[in-house]
Design a protein that fits this description.
Structural class: mainly beta
Radius of gyration: 13 Å
Order of helices and strands: EEEEEE
Strand content: 35-45%
InterPro entries: Ig-like_dom, Ig-like_dom_sf, Ig-like_fold, Ig_I-set
Organism: Rotaria magnacalcarata
Number of strands: 6
Helix content: under 10%
Protein name: Ig-like domain-containing protein
Shape: elongated
Largest sheet: 4 strands, antiparallel
C-alpha cells in the first residue's frame, strides 16, 4: 500500500514569495503524487511546478509568487 514517509507541512509565506511543499512517499508499485487545490489538480498552467523523483519517492510542489 502507498504511504507517506514524510508528509507536507503547512507553509506561511508573504505575498510574492515562493511556497515549497515537500513530501516523501513509498509503496509498490511506485505511488503517483497529485497535488490538489480545492479538490482540483495543480498544473504548470496554474503556475505550479511539480517534481517527482520516483526512485526516491521525493515529491515537491513549488508555487512561485504566491498571491
Amino acid at each position: 500500500s502507498p504511504e507517506f514517509v514524510n508528509k507536507p507541512t503547512t507553509q506561511e509565506v508573504k505575498q510574492s514569495e515562493t511556497a515549497v511543499f515537500e513530501a516523501k512517499v513509498d509503496g509498490y508499485p511506485i505511488p503517483k503524487v497529485i497535488w490538489l487545490l480545492n479538490g482540483k489538480p495543480l498544473t504548470p498552467k496554474d503556475g505550479a511546478q511539480v517534481e517527482m523523483n520516483a526512485p526516491t519517492g521525493d515529491a515537491k510542489l513549488t508555487i512561485p509568487k504566491v498571491d
